[in-house]
Amino acid sequence: MLKDITLGQYVPGDSLLHRLDPRSKILGSMLYIVALFLLKSGLGYALITAFTILLVLLSALPPRYVLRGIRPVIFIVLFTVVLNIFLTPGEVVWRLGPFKATDQGIRLGVFMGWRLLLLVLTTSLLTLTSSPIALTDGIEHLLRPFTKIGVPAHELAMMMTIALRFIPTLLEETDKIMKAQMARGADFESGNIIQRARGMIPLLVPLFVSAFRRADELATAMEARCYRGGEGRTRLKELRFMGADFVALTISVLLLALGVADRIWG
Fold it and tell me: What is the pTM of this model?
C-alpha cells in the first residue's frame, strides 16, 4: 500500500506538462481545485473528468502508474461517500435499521467521492511532472511579492518542497521498518483498533529517529555547500513563461469560470 503513494515523486520526462513553467502548473492546479469545489452538477463533473483524463494523456506517463496513487485513499473516499449517504437529510430511498439513505445523500456522496479522487489525481500529476528544484523556484517566484510585508518566500518554498520530496523517502523507510519488525514477529494487522495502535509503536519510534537523522544529514549537507538562504542566490535555469504557459493559464481560468457558472446555474 505504501509503495502506491505517488504524491511527492518526480518522473523525468519531456511531455508537454513536463515542459510547462512550474508557476503555470502551480497556479493552474490552484484554479483547478477551486473550480472542482465549485461544481455541483453531473455535467460539470463530466467535463472536468474529461479534462483530467486529457492531462494524464498529456503527461505521457503510464496511466496505470498515475492511477496507482488513488489506491491509498480509496478507504477515505468510501468512508466519505457512506457518511454523506446516511447523514444527509432528504427523501429516504433505502433503510437499514436506524440508518437511512437519502436521494440527496447518494448524489452528494458520489460527487464528494469523485471530487476527492480527482483532487488526489491532479496533485499527483503536479509532483510527477515537476522536479523539486522547479517547484521550489516556482513557489518562491509566486511568493516573492509578499516579501515586502516580511514573508520569507524562499524559506517557505524550500520547506514545502523538502516536505514533498521526503514523502517518498519516508514511505520507503516505513516499508523497510515494517518488514524488519514483521520478521521479528511484530503484528500490524490483527486485533482491534487499540491493539493496532499499540502495535504501531515499534514502527513509529525508529521512523522518528530515522526522520531526525535524515534532517540532520540534510542540514549538514546544505551547510557544507555554503547554503545561506535565498538572498543573492543564482539559478542554473531561469524561469520564463512561454506560449504554452499562457495557454495553460487561459484554460485554467476558463475552467474556473465553468465552476462559477455551474455553481450559479447548475
Answer: 0.79
